[in-house]
Design brief:
The chain is α+β, with helices and mostly antiparallel strands. The chain is built from 28 helices and 35 strands.
C-alpha cells in the first residue's frame, strides 16, 4: 500500500491520478504461490487507510485467494468445503471480533446480519436488539438512505462514504461506510471515525483561525496550493492564487530578497530557512511577514516548497513605537522635573537634564566634564556625608533612597530625596545615575501634618462636644471620653469611663432610651453609620438636646469590637428650628406680598413656587405652573439660548449676569418686556427670581431713543451747515484775493482762508462721526497737513512732511485751537524756513502721556531769527498761536539749535455743552 505517486512505471498510475486517486491498497490473489489476480482499493485522500482496515482487508484477500484455489477443480471442492468451513469459522471469528462494523440488510432496511461492532457503534446492548430496528433508524438524515440506495442501484457499490449517523441515545457519530448490492441484499461495513473527524475539525479550525499564511510553490515557481487563511488575511481566493508566481505579490523593494530566498531553499533539504518581506494584499496595502520555507519537492503529495508566512505588522509597529519611545524617553529625561545626572566613576559629569541646569544655573555644555563635587550644591557640613554615599554604593552595589539638602542658584535650601544607582554593563560598573526628587513641599507638609496632629489633639480636648468609644451594652460603658464631656453633661470624663460614677445610659432621658438602643442596633445589623437626636439629663438636672453620630467598629472576622462616635449639644439648634418655622411663615408672607413677580426655580428649571404677582403676569392659574412648567416655557425663542447659557453658568460659578432684560410670553401669547433679578438660594441649588414688568418703560425708552435720534440728526445737520458756511467764507476769501493787488493783502486773505478751512475740517469730522463731542485728531492732522501743502503749492519732493501721531481723540474745545496752531506753524515754516527753493523736512509729532498731550512741530530750515521774540511780535500768526496756546491752558517752548522746533504741552479742555436739549 502507499500513495499512488510512489508507484512508478505502472500503466494504471496515470489513469488513477486522472481520476483523482491518491492512496492505494493492493492485494495479490495467489493460487499455488502464483499471482492470479490483484484487488486494488483506491482513495482520493493521501495516506488515508487505517491499520485496522489494512489488517482486515489483508485477511480477506487471503481468504479470497484460498477460495479461488479450492474451486479450481471438482476434486478439490470437498477439500475446499472443509477448508471453507474452517475459513468460514475463521471469517466468522474475524467478523465477530472485528473492530469494524460489518452488516447485511435487504433494500427495505431489514437487518439480516450484523456483528457486535455494529451494535456497539450505534449504542445497542446486543445484536438482537439492533435487529429489531430498521437500518434507517441509524441515519441522522433520512434522505441519506434514499440517496444511498440510488447510488447502489446505479453503480452497484459505494466505497469510503462519510456520513453522520445517530446512536440509540440520540448522539451523533461520524461513520465511514462502504457497501455493495447483490440482488436484494446489501453488504456493508461501518467504521467509527468520530475521533478522527474531531481531530480533523480541530486541525482545520486551528489552521482556519491561524494568523499564518500557507502556500506550496512548485519547481516552476507557481503556487499549487494555498490554505483558506490566504483569503481571510490577504483577500485572495485559493482559485485566484493557484497558478500565480508568488513574486507577483511581493513588494518591489523585497522581490530580490524573496527570489534569493527561494533559490537558497531550492538547494537546501530538511531545513527551514527564514526571511522577511512584504506581501501585497487585495486592497493594495502591504503586509510585513516573517516567513519560513522548506524544500519538500521529494515528498509525495506535496512536491514543492512549503512556505509559511507569519504577519509581523504589530512587531514592526512595535519597533517603530520603540524607536519613538526612545526619543520620548530622551525628551522625558530633559523635561523630568527631578534633578537627574549621569556621573562617571571618576566623579565627572557625563549628562544632566534641564532641571539640573536650572538648579545649578550652569548650562549642560559647561556642566559636562565638570567634577560633581565642584558644583557645591550641598551645604558644607553635608558634603562629606554625600561623598560617603558614593563609596558605600560602589562597595555594596546598592543604596536605599535618602533625604538631603541642596542649594539652588539663588542660595535657597531645598530638600530632595535621592536615588543613587550604579549602572553596570556585563556586571562591570560604568557610571552613576543620580535622580533627586524635590520634596521641599512634602517636608513642609510633614511639618504641617505634625502641627495638624498637635492641633487635632488640642481640638479633641477642646471640642464643644464629646468624642467617645464605648461598648455595645445596655449601660453604654465608656472606654474613652473626650474632655468636652464636662461642658455637655456636668460629669468629668473619669466619672463615665467604665461607669465609675455614672453610666451614659443613666444620662439619656428615660423617654428616649429605647429609641436610642433600637436605632443603634439596626445600624449595627446593616454595618451602617447611625445618626439621631435625643435628650439627656445633665448633672444639674437640666435637659439638653444632643445630636449623636457614630458607627460600629468591626474586626477582620466581622466581630463587633466597640462603638465610636461624637455627641454634641444641639439644644440651641432645636430652639432655632422652632424660630425658623416662625420665620418661614414671616418670609412666606413677604414672598407672597412683595411688589414684584417672584418665583423659585429648581435645578431642572422647574418652577416650584410663585407668588400672586407672578401668577397674574403669566396668565395661568397657580396650580397650572407649580412643579409642572419650566421657566423656559415662558421665554421668547430669540432669548432662550442666551438665558439657558446664563442658567448653566450660574450653576458653575458666580460669573453669570444676575440682572438682565428679556421677553416673557404669557398664556394669551402676549409678549412682555421684563427685567429679571436672579440669585442662588444659599445652601441649595434653587434660584430666586424677581421679575419686573417693564413693558411700559421699554415703550417709553423707544420713544426717547426716537427723540434722541432726531436730535442727533439735527446736530449733524448743524455741523454740516457750519462746515458749509465756513467753506462759503473760505470761497469768498479766495475770490477776494482776485480783487486786491497788494501781495500783503492777498497773503492775509489766504491765511484767513486757511484758518477758516482748518475750522471747517473740524466740523466736517464731527459731522461724519458717531460721537459729536470728539474727533479722531490723528486722522484730522494727516488731512490738514496735506491740505496746507496743497494750498501753499509745495512740492513734497522738496519739502517732505514727517508725521508721528498717536491715535488721539479730542473734543471740539481742544481740537479747533490745536488745528489752528498746527495750521499757523506749518504755514509759517513753509513760508520762511526754506528760502530760494531750499529742501528739507517739516516734522509733526503728537504724543499722549497720561492726561497730558505734547505737540511738537519742527523744521530743518534756516531757523528762527534770534532777534525775534515769538511771544511779543507783530506777526498775526504767532500772536494767534500764543493766544490759542493760552486758550487750551498750554505751555509753548521754542528751540532754534537746528532749524526751528516748537514744543507745546497741553491738556484736553472740558467740553462745554452749548445746546440744551428739551422735551
Amino acid at each position: 500500500m502507499g500513495n499512488v505517486n510512489s508507484f512508478e512505471n505502472r500503466e494504471w498510475r496515470e489513469e488513477a491520478i486522472n481520476r483523482g486517486y491518491n492512496s492505494l491498497i493492493s492485494l495479490p490473489l495467489k493460487v499455488e504461490g502464483k499471482i492470479i489476480g490483484i484487488i486494488n482499493i483506491y482513495s482520493a485522500k493521501p495516506n488515508y487507510y487505517l491499520k485496522e482496515e489494512i489488517d482486515l482487508i489483508s485477511k480477506i484477500g487471503l481468504d479470497i485467494s484460498f477460495a479461488i484455489k479450492v474451486i479450481d477443480t471438482e476434486n478439490e471442492r470437498r477439500l475446499a468445503e472443509i477448508a471453507l468451513k474452517d475459513s468460514e469459522k475463521q471469517y466468522r471469528d474475524l467478523v465477530d471480533n472485528s473492530l469494524i462494523g460489518i452488516y447485511k440488510t435487504n433494500v427495505k432496511g431489514e437487518i439480516l446480519f450484523a456483528n457486535q461492532s455494529v451494535a456497539n457503534l450505534f449504542n445497542y446492548d446486543s445484536i438482537e436488539e439492533l435487529k429489531n430496528h430498521n437500518i434507517i433508524d441509524v441515519y441522522k438524515n433520512k434522505d441519506d438512505r434514499r440517496e444511498f440506495l440510488e447510488v447502489l442501484n446505479k453503480k452497484g457499490r459505494i466505497t469510503r462514504c462519510e456520513r453522520e449517523n445517530i446512536r440509540k441515545d440520540g448522539q451523533t457519530v461520524h461513520v465511514l461506510s462502504s457497501a455493495s448490492l447483490d440482488g436484494e441484499v446489501i453488504t456493508g461495513m461501518f467504521m467509527d471515525i468520530t475521533d478522527r473527524k474531531q481531530v480533523e475539525d480541530r486541525f482545520h479550525s486551528i489552521i482556519n483561525n491561524s494568523a499564518d499564511l500557507f502556500i506550496i510553490v512548485n519547481n516552476e515557481r507557481r503556487i499549487t496550493f494555498s490554505y483558506p487563511t490566504s483569503e481571510r488575511i490577504l483577500g485572495y481566493s485559493n482559485k485566484f492564487l493557484t497558478g500565480k508566481d508568488p513574486s507577483d505579490f511581493i513588494h518591489l523593494e523585497d522581490v530580490g530578497t524573496f527570489n534569493k530566498h527561494l533559490e537558497e531553499v531550492s538547494k537546501t533539504r530538511n531545513k527551514g530557512l527564514f526571511t522577511e518581506y512584504r506581501i501585497k494584499k487585495s486592497n493594495g496595502e502591504y503586509l510585513p511577514v516573517e516567513a519560513v520555507s522548506q524544500n519538500m519537492m521529494d515528498v509525495s503529495g506535496i512536491n514543492g516548497i512549503v512556505m509559511t508566512a507569519h504577519p509581523i505588522q504589530e512587531r514592526k509597529e512595535m519597533e517603530e513605537t520603540l524607536q519613538k519611545s526612545e526619543e520620548r524617553y530622551k525628551t522625558l529625561f530633559q523635561l523630568d522635573p527631578d534633578y537627574t545626572l549621569v556621573l562617571g566613576l571618576d566623579g565627572k559629569i557625563l549628562d544632566v537634564n534641564s532641571a539640573t541646569e536650572q538648579l545649578s544655573g550652569i548650562s549642560k555644555e559647561k556642566l559636562v566634564g565638570k567634577r560633581f563635587k565642584d558644583l557645591n550644591i550641598y551645604p558644607a557640613r553635608d558634603e562629606s556625608k554625600h561623598m560617603a554615599k558614593f563609596s558605600k554604593l560602589l562597595k555594596d552595589g546598592k543604596l536605599p533612597p535618602y533625604e538631603s539638602r541642596v542649594i539652588d542658584l539663588e542660595g535657597e535650601i531645598h530638600w530632595v530625596k535621592t536615588v543613587l544607582t550604579i549602572i553596570k554593563r556585563n556586571n562591570v560598573p560604568i557610571y552613576y545615575l543620580i535622580i533627586a526628587t524635590d520634596i521641599t513641599e512634602l517636608k513642609k507638609k510633614e511639618e504641617a501634618l505634625k502641627e495638624n496632629q498637635r492641633a487635632f489633639e488640642t481640638l479633641i480636648s477642646n471640642l464643644p462636644g464629646v468624642a467617645y468609644r464605648c461598648k455595645n451594652d445596655p449601660m453604654w460603658t465608656m472606654e474613652f471620653v473626650s474632655g468636652g464631656c464636662y461642658n455637655l453633661t456636668g460629669y468629668h470624663a473619669k466619672d463615665l469611663i467604665e461607669n465609675n460614677e455614672v453610666s451614659y445610659s443613666e444620662i439619656i432621658h428615660p423617654d428616649d432610651k429605647e429609641r436610642v438602643w433600637d436605632t443603634i442596633q439596626k445600624s449595627l445589623d446593616k454595618n451602617e453609620q447611625f445618626k439621631m437626636i435625643y435628650r439627656i439629663c445633665t448633672k444639674d438636672l437640666s435637659t439638653k438636646y444632643v445630636w449623636e453620630q457614630g458607627r460600629g467598629i468591626f474586626s477582620d472576622n466581622n466581630e463587633l469590637m466597640w462603638l465610636e462616635g461624637f455627641i454634641t449639644d444641639v439644644t440651641r439648634r432645636i430652639i432655632d428650628e422652632e424660630r425658623i418655622k416662625e420665620s418661614e411663615i414671616y418670609y412666606r408672607t413677604m414672598f407672597e406680598n412683595t411688589g414684584t413677580a417672584t418665583v423659585i426655580i429648581e435645578r431642572d428649571k422647574t418652577i416650584s413656587e410663585l407668588n400672586t404677582e407672578a401668577v397674574n403676569l403669566s396668565g395661568y392659574a397657580k396650580d397650572e405652573i407649580e412643579n409642572k412648567k419650566k421657566w423656559t416655557d415662558f421665554v421668547a425663542k430669540t432669548d432662550l439660548n442666551r438665558l439657558e447659557n446664563y442658567f448653566e453658568l450660574r450653576m458653575k460659578s458666580e460669573a453669570a449676569p444676575k440682572k438682565y432684560e428679556t421677553k416673557l410670553i404669557n398664556k394669551a401669547g402676549d409678549v412682555k418686556d421684563i427685567f429679571v433679578t436672579i440669585t442662588r438660594i444659599p445652601g441649595t441649588k434653587k434660584e430666586l427670581a424677581s421679575i419686573l414688568d417693564i413693558t411700559e418703560l421699554k415703550n417709553a425708552e423707544k420713544d426717547l431713543q426716537a427723540s434722541l435720534k432726531e436730535k442727533d440728526i439735527l446736530l449733524k445737520e448743524i455741523h454740516h451747515r457750519v462746515k458749509n458756511n465756513m467753506q462759503i467764507v473760505s470761497s469768498l476769501l479766495s475770490l477776494q484775493t482776485h480783487y486786491v493787488d497788494e501781495d500783503e493783502t492777498q497773503n492775509v486773505l489766504r491765511e484767513s482762508q486757511g484758518r477758516v478751512k482748518t475750522m471747517a475740517m473740524i466740523h466736517e469730522k464731527l459731522y461724519s462721526s458717531n460721537d459729536f463731542t470728539q474727533i479722531r485728531f490723528d486722522e484730522y492732522i494727516v488731512k490738514l497737513i496735506s491740505d496746507i501743502f496743497y494750498s501753499c503749492n509745495v512740492n513734497k519732493d522738496r519739502i517732505k512732511p514727517v508725521i508721528h501721531v498717536d491715535e488721539v481723540n479730542l473734543n471740539i474745545e481742544t481740537a479747533i485751537p490745536c488745528g489752528l496752531i498746527i495750521n499757523e506753524l506749518i504755514s509759517n515754516s513753509l513760508k520762511y524756513a526754506f528760502p530760494n527753493d531750499a529742501a528739507g523736512n517739516i516734522c509733526l509729532c503728537l504724543k499722549k502721556s497720561g492726561e497730558n498731550y505734547e505737540l511738537t512741530i519742527s523744521d530743518s530750515g534756516i531757523g528762527f531769527p534770534e532777534s525775534l521774540d515769538y511771544r511779543n511780535t507783530d506777526s498775526l500768526g504767532l500772536q494767534l498761536v500764543n493766544n490759542l496756546v493760552d486758550q487750551i491752558d498750554g505751555k509753548i517752548e521754542i528751540n532754534t539749535d537746528q532749524g526751528t522746533k516748537f514744543s507745546i504741552e497741553f491738556k484736553e479742555q472740558e467740553y462745554k455743552e452749548r445746546i440744551a436739549f428739551r422735551d
